[in-house]
C-alpha cells in the first residue's frame, strides 16, 4: 500500500463529559483521570494498524476542537490529551503518527490560536524592530506552511505532549483558519479547516458590522473574518472552561438545549433571577419578560435546527459553506497555489461526517467536500447522521474517508466503511485500504465494540444529567412561585 502521508481527525473535545475519548465516571458527572478512555485506546490501535512495515509514520492533522475549553476545566482537557499522546507514543518505532503534529484550531479551543499567534507576532517584531507586520500576520497563517516566515509553534500543546511522552521531542505547529496541501504539479489541492466560519453564529461581529458599520466590497478574506470575530469566539466559545463555577453553569445551559423541559426550566430560572435582582418591581418584570421572550425565541430556533431530521447542513450552513469556499478559501488558493483543477475541502465542526461535492463559482469544477464528524454524543436520542471519520491522504493527495462509526440502533452503524473523497480520476488509496483492512477483525472489531457501548453510555449519562437539571430547576421555580403568591 502506498504510504499514508497525513491522517486527519477533528472534534475530539478532550476533557468533555460527552466525549467518547474522555474517561468519565459511571454517573457521568466527572472526568475519571485514573485511566484512558477505552475508545481512545482502541482508536490509537486502529491508527497504528494503518502504518505498514517499513513506512514512515504519517503526520497527524487535528482540525480543531482537540480540546474542550468552553465546557470543561482546562485540567481535565490537559490530562486527557496527555493520555492520548501516551497511547500514540509519537517517536516510538511502532508509532502510528510522526512526532510533528499540525493543529488547526476550532471554536472550542480558539484560545490556543490567540495565545500562539501572539507569540508569533512578538517574534516577528523582535526579529525586525523596524518591521510592521500586516494584519494577515496577526490574524492568520498562510495557506501553505512553507510560506510562513515564522511558524506558529504551540508551546502549550508541546508541553502537554511531553507530559504524555517524555521520551520524544514532539513539535506542534498551528495553521489557521486554513491549511493547504498541494501536489508537485499544482493541479490538485486539499484544503483543511475546522469549519466554524460556515455558521452565522461565529461570524456574528461581521454580520453586525454589515448592519451598523461600513459594508465591505469584494470577497471577505480569512484574516478579515478572524479580525472581526476572533475576540467574540474567545469570549464565550473557548475560554469559559477556565471560569470556575461559571463553567458548570455554562455547561448546564449548553446541555439544556438538548431537552425542551430543561431548556424552559433554565429560562424560567433566569427570568426569576432577573426579577429578584432589581429593586423596581415594574422594571424588573419588564426586563425579565423581555429577556425570557428573546431566549425562548432564539433558543427555540437553535433547537429546531439542531434536531431537524435528515439534514446534514442547515440552509444557513449550506450558504455559509459555499460563501466560505468562494471567498476566504478561493482568495488564499489564488494567492499561494494558483488555479488547481481538483480541489478538496476537509472540515469538521458539525459532528456529521459526509462526503459530497459543491459547485462553486470561484473554482473550475465542483469542490469535493468531506466532513470528519466528531467524537461526542450531543443528544440523548441517537442520530444516525452523527459520527466520526478519519481522512487519510497519500503523497499524490489521493484521499479516503474511513467512517469509524455512526450513531445508530444496531452494530452495522459502528462497522468501519471506506469511501473515496476526491473521486475524480483513479484513487488507488481506497482500494488498497479496503484490501488491507478487515473491519470484522481486531483492532477494528474491538474498536466497534467499545465505541458502541460508550455511545450508549454517554447518551444515558446526558439524559440523566438533563433529568436531574430539569427536576432541580422545576422545584426551585415552584418554591419561588409559592413564595411570590404568599407575599
Question: How does this structure look, described?
Answer:
The relative contact order is 0.14. It is built from 13 helices and 13 strands. The protein has helices at residues 38-50, 74-88, 110-127, 135-139, 155-164, 204-212, 222-237, 245-256, 260-277, 281-306, 315-336, 428-436, 444-486, and strands at residues 4-9, 59-62, 100-103, 152-153, 171-174, 178-182, 188-193, 342-347, 354-358, 367-371, 387-394, 399-406, 417-420. The longest helix has 43 residues, at 444-486. An 8-stranded mixed beta sheet has the order 4-5-3-2-1-11-12-13. Strands 6-7-8-10-9 form a 5-stranded mixed beta sheet, with helices on one face. The model has no long low-confidence stretch (mean pLDDT 87). Helices cover 44% and strands 14% of the residues. It has one domain (4-237, 308-461). With 487 residues, it is α/β, with parallel strands linked by helices.
Amino acid at each position: 500500500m502506498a504510504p499514508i502521508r497525513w491522517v486527519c481527525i477533528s472534534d475530539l473535545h478532550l476533557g468533555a463529559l460527552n466525549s467518547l475519548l474522555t474517561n468519565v465516571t459511571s454517573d457521568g458527572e466527572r472526568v475519571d483521570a485514573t485511566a484512558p478512555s477505552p475508545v481512545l485506546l482502541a482508536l490509537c490501535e486502529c491508527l497504528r494498524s494503518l502504518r505498514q512495515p517499513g513506512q514512515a509514520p504519517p503526520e497527524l492533522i487535528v482540525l480543531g476542537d482537540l480540546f474542550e475549553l468552553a465546557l470543561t476545566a482546562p485540567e481535565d482537557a490537559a490530562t486527557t490529551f496527555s493520555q492520548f499522546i501516551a497511547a500514540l507514543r509519537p517517536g516510538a518505532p511502532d508509532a502510528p503518527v510522526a512526532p510533528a503534529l499540525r493543529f488547526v484550531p476550532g471554536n472550542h479551543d480558539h484560545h490556543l490560536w490567540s495565545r500562539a499567534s501572539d507569540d508569533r507576532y512578538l517574534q516577528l517584531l523582535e526579529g525586525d524592530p523596524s518591521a510592521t507586520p500586516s494584519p494577515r500576520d496577526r490574524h492568520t497563517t498562510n495557506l501553505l506552511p512553507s510560506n510562513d516566515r515564522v511558524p506558529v509553534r504551540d508551546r502549550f500543546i508541546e508541553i502537554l505532549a511531553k507530559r504524555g511522552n517524555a521520551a520524544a521531542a514532539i513539535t506542534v505547529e498551528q495553521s489557521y483558519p486554513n491549511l493547504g496541501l498541494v501536489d508537485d504539479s499544482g493541479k490538485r489541492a486539499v484544503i483543511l479547516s475546522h469549519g466554524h466560519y460556515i455558521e452565522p453564529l461565529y461570524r456574528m461581529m461581521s454580520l453586525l458590522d454589515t448592519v451598523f458599520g461600513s459594508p465591505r466590497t469584494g470577497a471577505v478574506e480569512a484574516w478579515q473574518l478572524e479580525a472581526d470575530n476572533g475576540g467574540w469566539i474567545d469570549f464565550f466559545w473557548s475560554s469559559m472552561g477556565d471560569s470556575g463555577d461559571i463553567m458548570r453553569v455554562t455547561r448546564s445551559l449548553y446541555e439544556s438545549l438538548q431537552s425542551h423541559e430543561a431548556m424552559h426550566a433554565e429560562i424560567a430560572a433566569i427570568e426569576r433571577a432577573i426579577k429578584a435582582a432589581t429593586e423596581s418591581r415594574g422594571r424588573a418584570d419588564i426586563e425579565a419578560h423581555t429577556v425570557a421572550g428573546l431566549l425562548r425565541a432564539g433558543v427555540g430556533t437553535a433547537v429546531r435546527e439542531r434536531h431537524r431530521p435528515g439534514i446534514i447542513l442547515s440552509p444557513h450552513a449550506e450558504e455559509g459553506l459555499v460563501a466560505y469556499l468562494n471567498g476566504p478559501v478561493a482568495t488564499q488558493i489564488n494567492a499561494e497555489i494558483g488555479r488547481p483543477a481538483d480541489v478538496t475541502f476537509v472540515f469538521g465542526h458539525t459532528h456529521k461526517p459526509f462526503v459530497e461535492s459543491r459547485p462553486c463559482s470561484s473554482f473550475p469544477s465542483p469542490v469535493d467536500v468531506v466532513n470528519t464528524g466528531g467524537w461526542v454524543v450531543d443528544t440523548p436520542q441517537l442520530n444516525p447522521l452523527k459520527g466520526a471519520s478519519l481522512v487519510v491522504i497519500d503523497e499524490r493527495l489521493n484521499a479516503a474517508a474511513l467512517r469509524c462509526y455512526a450513531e445508530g440502533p444496531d452494530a452495522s452503524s459502528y462497522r468501519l466503511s471506506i469511501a473515496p473523497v476526491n473521486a475524480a480520476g483513479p484513487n488507488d488509496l481506497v482500494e488498497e485500504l479496503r484490501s488491507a483492512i478487515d473491519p470484522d477483525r481486531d483492532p477494528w472489531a474491538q474498536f466497534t465494540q467499545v465505541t458502541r457501548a460508550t455511545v450508549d453510555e454517554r447518551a444515558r449519562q446526558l439524559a440523566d444529567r438533563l433529568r436531574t437539571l430539569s427536576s432541580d430547576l422545576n422545584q426551585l421555580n415552584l418554591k419561588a412561585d409559592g413564595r411570590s403568591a404568599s407575599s
